[in-house]
Amino acid sequence: NQMNEIVQIMAISYAVERTLIMPGLSLDIPVLTKNLVDSQTKFHAIFDFERAQAILKGKLCVVKEGQISEDLEPDYVVVPHGREAPLDLYRREYGPDTTYAKKKILGLRRPTGHSHYLVRFFGPHAKSVERMMSEALHFHPDIRKPAMEIVHKLRALAGDQKKFMAVHHRVESDWREHSNHMERLWGPDAEFWVGPKTIKSRIDSVQELKNTAVVFISVAERNLVTFDGNSNATHLVDLWEKGNVHIAKLVSSFTGDTKHVVYLVLSAISFIVCEHSAVFVGNGYSSFAQEISKRHSTKGKPSYVYNGDRGMQAAKLRTDHGRLSEPFFSTISPNP
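RESULT FIELD:
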Protein backbone atom coordinates (compact mmCIF):
# COMPACT_ATOMS: atom_id res chain seq x y z
CA ASN A 1 0.00 0.00 0.00
CA GLN A 2 2.77 2.45 0.86
CA MET A 3 4.47 1.93 -2.50
CA ASN A 4 1.18 2.56 -4.29
CA GLU A 5 0.63 5.70 -2.25
CA ILE A 6 4.09 7.02 -3.09
CA VAL A 7 3.53 6.45 -6.81
CA GLN A 8 0.21 8.31 -6.56
CA ILE A 9 1.72 11.21 -4.61
CA MET A 10 4.54 11.51 -7.15
CA ALA A 11 2.01 11.49 -10.00
CA ILE A 12 -0.08 14.20 -8.32
CA SER A 13 3.02 16.37 -7.83
CA TYR A 14 3.89 15.88 -11.49
CA ALA A 15 0.35 16.85 -12.55
CA VAL A 16 0.29 20.04 -10.45
CA GLU A 17 3.91 20.90 -11.39
CA ARG A 18 5.25 21.09 -7.84
CA THR A 19 8.39 19.92 -6.07
CA LEU A 20 7.64 16.87 -3.91
CA ILE A 21 8.98 16.54 -0.38
CA MET A 22 9.36 12.77 -0.16
CA PRO A 23 7.11 11.38 2.59
CA GLY A 24 8.07 9.22 5.53
CA LEU A 25 7.13 5.55 5.66
CA SER A 26 5.49 3.55 8.42
CA LEU A 27 7.64 0.78 9.89
CA ASP A 28 4.74 -0.85 11.69
CA ILE A 29 2.90 -4.09 11.12
CA PRO A 30 -0.42 -3.01 9.60
CA VAL A 31 -3.54 -3.19 11.74
CA LEU A 32 -6.84 -2.19 10.18
CA THR A 33 -8.25 -0.39 13.21
CA LYS A 34 -5.01 1.41 14.09
CA ASN A 35 -5.10 5.14 13.35
CA LEU A 36 -1.78 6.34 14.74
CA VAL A 37 1.68 5.54 13.39
CA ASP A 38 4.08 4.60 16.15
CA SER A 39 7.28 4.66 14.15
CA GLN A 40 8.39 6.09 10.83
CA THR A 41 11.50 6.14 8.71
CA LYS A 42 12.71 8.44 5.96
CA PHE A 43 12.00 7.65 2.32
CA HIS A 44 15.72 7.45 1.55
CA ALA A 45 16.24 4.74 4.19
CA ILE A 46 14.06 2.34 2.16
CA PHE A 47 14.36 3.59 -1.42
CA ASP A 48 17.34 4.76 -3.47
CA PHE A 49 16.68 8.51 -3.39
CA GLU A 50 19.58 9.55 -5.64
CA ARG A 51 18.53 7.05 -8.31
CA ALA A 52 14.92 8.27 -8.20
CA GLN A 53 16.11 11.85 -8.44
CA ALA A 54 18.25 11.05 -11.49
CA ILE A 55 15.47 9.13 -13.26
CA LEU A 56 12.96 11.91 -12.67
CA LYS A 57 15.30 14.76 -13.62
CA GLY A 58 13.49 17.19 -15.88
CA LYS A 59 10.12 15.58 -15.07
CA LEU A 60 9.61 15.89 -11.33
CA CYS A 61 11.77 17.59 -8.71
CA VAL A 62 11.99 15.58 -5.49
CA VAL A 63 13.70 16.59 -2.24
CA LYS A 64 14.35 14.89 1.08
CA GLU A 65 12.61 15.80 4.28
CA GLY A 66 14.64 18.53 5.95
CA GLN A 67 15.78 20.16 2.71
CA ILE A 68 12.94 22.66 2.95
CA SER A 69 13.08 25.46 5.53
CA GLU A 70 11.22 24.58 8.72
CA ASP A 71 9.92 28.16 8.80
CA LEU A 72 7.63 27.36 5.87
CA GLU A 73 4.35 25.89 7.06
CA PRO A 74 2.26 23.84 4.62
CA ASP A 75 -1.18 25.06 3.63
CA TYR A 76 -3.31 21.94 3.99
CA VAL A 77 -6.48 21.31 2.02
CA VAL A 78 -8.80 18.31 2.10
CA VAL A 79 -9.27 16.89 -1.38
CA PRO A 80 -12.91 17.09 -2.54
CA HIS A 81 -13.39 13.38 -3.16
CA GLY A 82 -13.09 10.14 -1.30
CA ARG A 83 -11.68 7.57 -3.66
CA GLU A 84 -9.69 7.17 -6.84
CA ALA A 85 -10.13 10.47 -8.65
CA PRO A 86 -8.74 10.95 -12.17
CA LEU A 87 -5.23 12.41 -12.15
CA ASP A 88 -6.43 15.37 -14.21
CA LEU A 89 -8.70 16.47 -11.34
CA TYR A 90 -5.63 17.41 -9.32
CA ARG A 91 -4.22 19.48 -12.18
CA ARG A 92 -7.53 21.34 -12.57
CA GLU A 93 -8.08 21.85 -8.83
CA TYR A 94 -4.53 22.53 -7.59
CA GLY A 95 -2.37 23.09 -10.68
CA PRO A 96 -0.39 26.13 -11.88
CA ASP A 97 -3.49 27.92 -13.21
CA THR A 98 -5.33 27.87 -9.87
CA THR A 99 -5.25 30.05 -6.76
CA TYR A 100 -3.28 27.32 -4.99
CA ALA A 101 -0.28 28.06 -7.20
CA LYS A 102 0.59 31.02 -4.94
CA LYS A 103 0.98 28.80 -1.88
CA LYS A 104 4.63 27.94 -1.24
CA ILE A 105 3.91 24.52 0.29
CA LEU A 106 0.65 22.76 -0.42
CA GLY A 107 -0.41 19.77 1.66
CA LEU A 108 -3.19 17.51 0.40
CA ARG A 109 -5.21 15.46 2.88
CA ARG A 110 -7.77 12.80 2.11
CA PRO A 111 -11.19 12.99 3.77
CA THR A 112 -11.23 11.28 7.16
CA GLY A 113 -12.19 7.63 6.93
CA HIS A 114 -11.81 7.36 3.16
CA SER A 115 -9.68 5.08 1.03
CA HIS A 116 -5.93 5.52 0.81
CA TYR A 117 -6.18 5.35 -3.00
CA LEU A 118 -6.26 8.99 -4.09
CA VAL A 119 -5.87 8.34 -7.82
CA ARG A 120 -7.25 6.02 -10.45
CA PHE A 121 -5.00 6.10 -13.51
CA PHE A 122 -7.46 6.36 -16.42
CA GLY A 123 -6.31 6.52 -20.03
CA PRO A 124 -2.94 6.14 -21.76
CA HIS A 125 -1.43 9.42 -20.52
CA ALA A 126 -2.24 8.80 -16.87
CA LYS A 127 -1.01 5.21 -17.12
CA SER A 128 2.25 6.37 -18.68
CA VAL A 129 2.70 8.80 -15.76
CA GLU A 130 2.02 5.96 -13.32
CA ARG A 131 4.60 3.77 -15.06
CA MET A 132 7.19 6.57 -15.10
CA MET A 133 6.82 7.13 -11.35
CA SER A 134 6.82 3.41 -10.56
CA GLU A 135 9.99 2.84 -12.58
CA ALA A 136 11.74 5.57 -10.59
CA LEU A 137 11.31 3.62 -7.34
CA HIS A 138 14.19 1.28 -6.55
CA PHE A 139 14.93 -0.12 -3.13
CA HIS A 140 17.99 1.01 -1.21
CA PRO A 141 21.15 -1.05 -2.00
CA ASP A 142 21.29 -2.18 1.64
CA ILE A 143 17.90 -3.84 1.16
CA ARG A 144 18.37 -4.99 -2.41
CA LYS A 145 21.65 -6.81 -1.72
CA PRO A 146 20.34 -9.40 0.79
CA ALA A 147 17.19 -9.85 -1.32
CA MET A 148 19.20 -10.67 -4.44
CA GLU A 149 21.33 -13.12 -2.45
CA ILE A 150 18.11 -14.98 -1.64
CA VAL A 151 17.11 -14.90 -5.33
CA HIS A 152 20.45 -16.45 -6.37
CA LYS A 153 20.18 -19.16 -3.69
CA LEU A 154 16.63 -20.05 -4.75
CA ARG A 155 17.72 -20.39 -8.38
CA ALA A 156 20.64 -22.56 -7.29
CA LEU A 157 18.26 -24.82 -5.36
CA ALA A 158 16.21 -25.25 -8.53
CA GLY A 159 19.11 -26.98 -10.30
CA ASP A 160 18.39 -27.57 -13.99
CA GLN A 161 15.08 -25.70 -13.77
CA LYS A 162 16.97 -22.50 -12.82
CA LYS A 163 13.73 -20.89 -11.71
CA PHE A 164 11.44 -20.63 -8.72
CA MET A 165 7.82 -19.80 -8.00
CA ALA A 166 6.82 -17.14 -5.47
CA VAL A 167 3.55 -17.59 -3.57
CA HIS A 168 2.18 -14.69 -1.56
CA HIS A 169 0.39 -16.33 1.36
CA ARG A 170 -1.91 -13.51 2.51
CA VAL A 171 -2.92 -15.28 5.71
CA GLU A 172 -1.63 -12.83 8.33
CA SER A 173 -3.74 -11.52 11.19
CA ASP A 174 -4.16 -8.04 9.65
CA TRP A 175 -5.51 -9.56 6.42
CA ARG A 176 -7.85 -11.81 8.36
CA GLU A 177 -9.21 -8.72 10.09
CA HIS A 178 -9.58 -6.89 6.76
CA SER A 179 -11.25 -9.94 5.17
CA ASN A 180 -13.87 -10.09 7.91
CA HIS A 181 -14.83 -6.49 7.18
CA MET A 182 -14.83 -6.86 3.39
CA GLU A 183 -16.74 -10.15 3.27
CA ARG A 184 -19.48 -8.59 5.39
CA LEU A 185 -19.78 -5.91 2.69
CA TRP A 186 -19.31 -8.05 -0.43
CA GLY A 187 -20.53 -11.41 0.84
CA PRO A 188 -18.48 -14.54 1.58
CA ASP A 189 -18.32 -15.59 -2.08
CA ALA A 190 -15.93 -12.70 -2.69
CA GLU A 191 -13.40 -14.87 -0.84
CA PHE A 192 -10.89 -12.39 0.50
CA TRP A 193 -9.56 -14.99 2.93
CA VAL A 194 -8.14 -18.33 1.75
CA GLY A 195 -6.41 -20.78 4.08
CA PRO A 196 -2.93 -22.21 3.38
CA LYS A 197 -4.13 -25.73 2.47
CA THR A 198 -6.61 -24.38 -0.06
CA ILE A 199 -3.95 -22.08 -1.55
CA LYS A 200 -1.59 -25.01 -2.09
CA SER A 201 -4.33 -27.27 -3.45
CA ARG A 202 -5.44 -24.73 -6.05
CA ILE A 203 -1.88 -24.00 -7.12
CA ASP A 204 -0.97 -27.68 -7.46
CA SER A 205 -4.09 -28.18 -9.59
CA VAL A 206 -2.27 -26.32 -12.35
CA GLN A 207 0.31 -28.73 -13.72
CA GLU A 208 2.79 -26.04 -14.76
CA LEU A 209 2.83 -24.69 -11.21
CA LYS A 210 2.97 -28.11 -9.59
CA ASN A 211 6.01 -28.95 -11.72
CA THR A 212 7.93 -25.92 -10.38
CA ALA A 213 10.06 -27.48 -7.69
CA VAL A 214 11.26 -24.49 -5.65
CA VAL A 215 8.68 -22.32 -3.90
CA PHE A 216 9.38 -19.05 -2.13
CA ILE A 217 6.71 -18.35 0.48
CA SER A 218 6.09 -14.63 0.86
CA VAL A 219 4.40 -14.01 4.21
CA ALA A 220 4.74 -11.62 7.15
CA GLU A 221 6.15 -14.27 9.46
CA ARG A 222 5.73 -12.27 12.67
CA ASN A 223 2.14 -11.33 11.90
CA LEU A 224 0.89 -14.81 11.11
CA VAL A 225 -2.12 -16.41 12.76
CA THR A 226 -3.96 -19.22 10.97
CA PHE A 227 -7.16 -21.13 11.60
CA ASP A 228 -5.30 -24.09 13.07
CA GLY A 229 -3.75 -21.92 15.78
CA ASN A 230 -0.17 -21.84 14.54
CA SER A 231 1.66 -18.58 15.08
CA ASN A 232 4.82 -19.13 13.04
CA ALA A 233 5.53 -19.83 9.40
CA THR A 234 7.36 -23.15 9.67
CA HIS A 235 4.10 -25.06 9.21
CA LEU A 236 3.77 -23.44 5.77
CA VAL A 237 7.11 -24.94 4.78
CA ASP A 238 5.97 -28.34 6.09
CA LEU A 239 2.73 -28.02 4.13
CA TRP A 240 4.49 -27.28 0.84
CA GLU A 241 7.16 -29.94 1.29
CA LYS A 242 4.69 -32.70 2.15
CA GLY A 243 4.95 -35.39 -0.51
CA ASN A 244 8.42 -34.23 -1.60
CA VAL A 245 7.05 -32.39 -4.64
CA HIS A 246 8.32 -28.94 -3.67
CA ILE A 247 11.23 -27.35 -1.83
CA ALA A 248 9.82 -24.43 0.17
CA LYS A 249 11.69 -21.47 1.64
CA LEU A 250 10.91 -18.34 3.62
CA VAL A 251 12.98 -15.18 4.08
CA SER A 252 14.03 -16.53 7.47
CA SER A 253 15.21 -19.77 5.82
CA PHE A 254 18.17 -17.74 4.56
CA THR A 255 18.54 -14.92 7.08
CA GLY A 256 17.81 -16.77 10.32
CA ASP A 257 15.76 -15.13 13.06
CA THR A 258 14.15 -11.96 11.73
CA LYS A 259 12.66 -10.62 14.96
CA HIS A 260 15.13 -7.72 15.03
CA VAL A 261 14.43 -6.72 11.40
CA VAL A 262 11.63 -4.17 11.01
CA TYR A 263 8.45 -5.22 9.23
CA LEU A 264 8.84 -2.77 6.34
CA VAL A 265 12.35 -3.98 5.49
CA LEU A 266 11.22 -7.63 5.51
CA SER A 267 8.33 -6.71 3.22
CA ALA A 268 10.73 -4.96 0.84
CA ILE A 269 13.03 -7.99 0.73
CA SER A 270 10.07 -10.26 0.04
CA PHE A 271 8.86 -7.90 -2.69
CA ILE A 272 12.21 -7.99 -4.49
CA VAL A 273 12.37 -11.79 -4.33
CA CYS A 274 8.81 -12.11 -5.69
CA GLU A 275 9.61 -9.64 -8.47
CA HIS A 276 12.47 -11.88 -9.63
CA SER A 277 10.48 -15.12 -9.55
CA ALA A 278 9.71 -16.93 -12.81
CA VAL A 279 6.04 -17.18 -11.87
CA PHE A 280 4.06 -15.46 -9.14
CA VAL A 281 0.84 -16.53 -7.41
CA GLY A 282 -0.99 -14.18 -5.07
CA ASN A 283 -4.22 -13.00 -3.51
CA GLY A 284 -6.11 -11.05 -6.16
CA TYR A 285 -7.29 -8.39 -3.72
CA SER A 286 -3.83 -7.66 -2.32
CA SER A 287 -2.07 -4.49 -3.48
CA PHE A 288 1.26 -6.32 -2.99
CA ALA A 289 0.15 -9.02 -5.44
CA GLN A 290 -1.23 -6.47 -7.89
CA GLU A 291 2.07 -4.59 -7.98
CA ILE A 292 4.10 -7.77 -8.52
CA SER A 293 1.70 -8.78 -11.31
CA LYS A 294 2.18 -5.40 -13.02
CA ARG A 295 5.93 -5.85 -12.97
CA HIS A 296 5.72 -9.45 -14.17
CA SER A 297 3.51 -8.45 -17.08
CA THR A 298 6.04 -5.87 -18.32
CA LYS A 299 8.63 -8.66 -18.47
CA GLY A 300 6.34 -11.24 -20.05
CA LYS A 301 6.24 -13.41 -16.95
CA PRO A 302 3.01 -15.07 -15.78
CA SER A 303 1.07 -14.29 -12.62
CA TYR A 304 -1.81 -16.24 -11.10
CA VAL A 305 -4.44 -15.67 -8.43
CA TYR A 306 -5.72 -18.32 -6.04
CA ASN A 307 -8.96 -16.67 -4.91
CA GLY A 308 -12.02 -14.70 -5.94
CA ASP A 309 -14.47 -17.55 -6.45
CA ARG A 310 -15.26 -19.82 -3.54
CA GLY A 311 -16.01 -22.70 -5.88
CA MET A 312 -12.79 -22.50 -7.90
CA GLN A 313 -10.67 -25.64 -8.08
CA ALA A 314 -7.49 -24.28 -9.65
CA ALA A 315 -5.47 -21.06 -9.63
CA LYS A 316 -6.30 -18.61 -12.42
CA LEU A 317 -3.95 -16.91 -14.85
CA ARG A 318 -4.01 -13.10 -14.54
CA THR A 319 -4.64 -11.33 -17.81
CA ASP A 320 -5.24 -7.83 -16.42
CA HIS A 321 -1.55 -6.92 -15.99
CA GLY A 322 -2.22 -6.45 -12.27
CA ARG A 323 -4.54 -3.50 -12.85
CA LEU A 324 -7.86 -4.87 -11.64
CA SER A 325 -8.61 -5.01 -7.94
CA GLU A 326 -10.97 -7.99 -8.22
CA PRO A 327 -9.44 -11.41 -8.95
CA PHE A 328 -12.57 -12.90 -10.52
CA PHE A 329 -11.80 -10.99 -13.71
CA SER A 330 -8.94 -13.39 -14.33
CA THR A 331 -8.97 -16.23 -16.83
CA ILE A 332 -9.03 -19.91 -15.86
CA SER A 333 -5.79 -21.63 -16.70
CA PRO A 334 -6.09 -23.75 -19.87
CA ASN A 335 -4.22 -26.66 -18.28
CA PRO A 336 -5.56 -27.25 -14.78
